[in-house]
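Q&A log
Question type: sequence-to-structure
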Amino acid sequence: MIEEKKLGLDPDVLAYWFKIIESDAKALCPQDLRDSISIKQDPVLWMKFQLKASKRAVPFLIQAIEKNLPSMPYATRLYFMKVGEIIEEEASRFYV
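Response status: OK
Response body:
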């Protein structure tokens, strides 16, 4: 059971889901925002990801995360729920 939970936080699993979320967010947003969304995995620290999105693209990124949550393993789902919270917090700083 613990092994199953650990697998959800494997860097390869996270990278896989980040790619899906990036692809879905780009599909959801208008053409002019697609280049503003990018997710890159650190080549040295595999658990570290750099996520970039314009302010206007943030809602599409959140929507893509929420769309994919039910399909994710439990630990991965918790991870991406936290990622979504962080994105929303960061975005709210710019809207104030």
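Response note: The chain has a mean pLDDT of 91.
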